[in-house]
Amino acid sequence: xxxxxxxxxxxxxxxxxxxxxxxxxxxxxxxxxxxxxxxxxxxxxxxxxxxxxxxxxxxxxxxxxxxxxxxxxxxxxxxxxxxxxxxxxxxxxxxxxxxxxxxxxxxxxxxxxxxxxxxxxxxxxxxxxxxxxxxxxxxxxxxxxxxxxxxxxxxxxxxxxxxxxxxxxxxxxxxxxxxxxxxxxxxxxxxxxxxxxxxxxxxxxxxxxxxxxxxxxxxxxxxxxxxxxxxxxxxxxxxxxxxxxxxxxxxxxxxxxxxxxxxxxxxxxxxxxxxxxxxxxxxxxxxxxxxxxxxxxxxxxxxxxxxxxxxxxxxxxxxxxxxxxxxxxxxxxxxxxxxxxxxxxxxxxxxxxxxxxxxxxxxxxxxxxxxxxxxxxxxxx
Length: 381
Ligand code: TRH
Prior knowledge:
The chain starts with a strand and ends with a helix. It is built from 15 helices and 14 strands. By secondary structure, it is an alpha/beta fold. Bound molecules: 2'-deoxy-thymidine-beta-L-rhamnose.
């Protein structure tokens, strides 16, 4: 059994801790590893894992030791494997202890996910420390062979397929959520996005479209757009808003595994960032991704790189329809979103079939937890 220290700083939102928490749980549950997760913002972790208590220096959950990362950093023995998520820089005192520890730990920088070509060339590369006798290795998740692949539990595809083919499981899910089961012919849509100018346009397209839409929104998401569209500021969990053919239901943020089920249960998922984006692909349902916006438009080539991969087996018309909606959504282009939606919606059967094929294709990739465990084992030999 190896020991692991995973370091995570929450920059904003939930993706950094979402990825680290998933990885930590997997290493503990599936690989029987001793995992300590250091996180500087326990409140964010508590949002996606409600058993976690903010303010505690040490606590245990799901087989993982969770440590509140704050200064002064305690004196601890470094683990066999040290993972810094997204170049978050472990504390200097900890790095000094890594140098003093025989044998020195394997040190990994787990990078952000990108579909760009250069990822393959950088995955696994060593980076010697400029002044200390330590080498850090880059571990890049990705969508193609030669990258670290994606985070996925080994039974994920089976669990998802079982859920999607079992009416009873789905009914139980809706019941637990306190939301009635879907009506016949009603499109179930989950909405998780950053604030932008296109949300109101999509709400309008749904309200006035041919297909009834039920939009499921976790508390705190798209509040500005929902308030403006429905003319109300009260968006507490349990709120139901209706206009035309659209119904919106607000519910409390879900525990990470329950959020998966929401994605499995919906016909169409609007997701963002990194982790929900990946989980929506594993859900094998059509999705609309809002990429995390970066300074100077650094996110546009990343969005295009993913579209190139995702659309390569689609007909030119379908690819254009999908890319049109995705680009308009990411630009916050209200007119573009509103005009792209009907065409996209009409192609749902093809998009659904594609989403299923895509999930199967991704299933052939390495899984980040397995690959990382093996990679580190080789480094430690
Ligand atoms: O919250 P995000 O916008 O996180 C982002 C991205 O990771 C981005 O790359 C990063 O740079 C930035 O943070 C700092 O979106 P993401 O990545 O989808 O993370 C959301 C997490 O929250 C994910 O693990 C799923 C989880 N989640 C729940 O557990 N329950 C919920 O109800 C919802 C809506 C999400």
